[in-house]
Amino acid sequence: QVQLQESGPGLVKPSQTLSLTCTVSGGSITTNYYYWSWIRQPPGKGLEWMGAIAYSGSTYYSPSLKSRTSISRDTSKNQFTLQLSSVTPEDTAVYYCARGRLSGLGDYEYDYWGQGTQVTVSS
Questions:
Q1: Cβ pair 69, 62 in contact under 8 A
Q2: Strands, E assignment, 42-92
Q3: Sheet containing 18-25: order of strands
Q4: Rounded to an integer, what distance in angstroms lies between the CA atom of residue 46 and that of residue 16?
Q5: Rounded distance, CA 54 to CA 32, Å?
Q6: How far apart, in whole angstroms, are the C-alpha atoms of residue 3 and residue 66?
Q7: Residue 106, pLDDT score
Q8: Which residues of the chain carry a pLDDT beneath 70?
Q9: How far apart are CA 38 and CA 73, in angstroms?
């Protein structure tokens, strides 16, 4: 059973960098063909895919967030990390990490999710 757990500060000040870590257990982040994503849900809105890091270490980002987003990994700890720079109150959301595979249509099919962590951007 794969488990994902997000961790990081719940409150970030505007203009600072948000940093979250997803710790994975029960499976390796280097296992072939899995993609490890960050997804967020602002209050009252739908899910927004932010980016992913592949089993190979390649990274992929949402075009709307690419200039502010960085995803990296520590294979020795089986963790991957999100950094979102220059945050504003509009970045307030529940942030999830998830494991997925590419479908035949080119999108991700997720099978495991973290429980999510609330991040509020406020001074």
A1: yes
A2: 48-54, 59-61, 69-74, 79-84
A3: 3-7, 18-25, 79-84, 69-74
A4: 24
A5: 9
A6: 27
A7: 77
A8: none
A9: 12
Name the residue with tokens 């390649």: 58
What is the rounded distance in angstroms from the CA atom of residue 88 to the CA atom of residue 121? 6
Q: DSSP 3-state assignment of 91?
A: helix
**Do residues 94 and 88 touch, judged by C-beta distance below 8 A?**
no
Distances (CA, A) of 19 to 25, 42, 44, 101: 20, 17, 23, 24
Structure tokens at 95: 């942030």
Task: State the pLDDT at residue 105.
Answer: 81
- In which residue are the tokens 């959301």 written? 93
Sequence letter at residue 78? N
Per-residue confidence (pLDDT) for residue 33, from 0 to 100: 95
b/e per residue, 93-117, with b = 16+ CB within 10 A? bbbbbbbbeeeeeeebeeebbbebb
**Angstrom distance (rounded) from CA 87 to CA 67:** 12
